[in-house]
Amino acid sequence: MIKNYLLTITFLAGVSVSSFSQEGNAIKASDSDKTKKEATQSVSTTTTAKDTKVTTPVSTEPIEPIYVHKKPSIGLGIGLMTFYGDINKGAEIYEMSNFRMGLDVNVEQRFGKHLGASADLLFGKLSQNEHSLTSNLNFESSVTQASANFVFHLDNREKGWRKTKTSAFVSAGVGYMMFNPMGDFRLENGTQYYYWADGSIRDQAFDVDNPQNGSILHRDYIYETSLDSNNSYSHGTLVFPLTFGIKVKFSNKFESDIKATYHITMSDDIDNVATGGKDAYLYSQISFRYNILAKTPKLPDTSPFAKTDFNQIVDIVDSDKDGVKDLDDKCGGTPHGAAVDAKGCPVDDDQDGIPNYQDKEKNTVKGAQVDGNGMTVKDDKLLQEYNDSLATPRDDLYKWRPSYRFDLDKTRTSDDTKTSNITAKVFTTEAVTDEYKYVDANKDGVITPQEVNAAVDSFFDGNTGKKAEDLNKMVKYFSGK
Predict the structure, then answer these.
(1) Is the Cβ–Cβ distance between 283 and 261 less than 8 Å?
(2) How far is CA 234 from CA 112, 141, 271, in A?
(3) How much is the pLDDT for 375?
(4) What is the CATH number of domain 2-35+61-184+221-291?
(5) Beta bridge partner(s), residue 143
(6) What is the pLDDT of residues 396-426, one digit of tens each?
């Protein structure tokens, strides 16, 4: 029987494991009873315009233990059932006709570091056949069995199983099985089997006088005859299942069990033959399991800032200490002590473009031209700087006198020639000395105020090759001064 038992295990394991034996690095189940520890860290950040130190506790949610199933898991399995009893006892080779299919449903709840409990419901058939010169017994019985089991898992986080996709487990339990043995004694049309000494099956008993009589039959393996129609023994028995299995984990929610369960019964009548000893059977199966409400595991963050809530830190930081958090500050780097508005930008009460902390003239008239210190620049001063500049690039001039950018450009490009600093008069090239005919940019024989202003712009851009003295003469010439 031991050889038959090992042969059955080898057969199913070879078929099942070949499909599910691939291993690799994966995150495995951790201790399901491990207490969650709240990870809390205090982060101190110096902030605000008043240099107030604010210590804000920053807490992060605890990292969930990996692969812990707090809810039951449901498994559905299919496998082969192999009977070990009094029929064909001692046979060296089991015929495939002696295997029967089984289906099972089970629910398991894990608890503790290694332990779990399961409830199993099994449906299937058991069968055995022998055909020899001395005995030709057979039977088949439907089986319905319910059992409860304790499971011991070997996938604790300290063990090597955690480094692979597979883990081992064993279980033992007790259950109750109902059976009803049937025999195959005749064909479907009612013709009885007769076993002759030559090993053949005939439709009549052997006749010594007429040995040629009798047609050869072949069994139809339809078990039509009840072997205990009088209920001479109980058709129910206690059963003790012993299991060894391998668990293959595909994800946090789905996994597969490849296992073999040896069932020891308390009956010697399952095959309708009682010669002493108890009947037993092996159920070799593969099942697919779904972990109810399993969550996707959270990988532990091992970085130095794993428990730091950066969102909360950013929400309170004020780098320039102006009282406006960096997240809302539109003008970062404000000097210490400068008054700012709600957006963190320096206040400019007189709206002259110079913030209060730089403004040396706090109440500049609206629209007045100012210098870099916010001081009003008079028109004669502006004109003097305009005319006496030593070909200063306009970008530098604007840097020193910010308000010039708007006022000078507006003056030079205005369509109202009456506002021009040059003149509203139009010249012809014939009336202009040769020295200034280059001002006629479009060569149409007419020099307009716009062309004069364009010549001034070209000088400041460094495109004319003229000197400041030449510019002053040209301006005086066209302005009539």
Answers:
(1) yes
(2) 39, 14, 12
(3) 85
(4) 2.40.160.20
(5) 124, 179
(6) 655 665 655 544 444 444 444 433 445 556 7
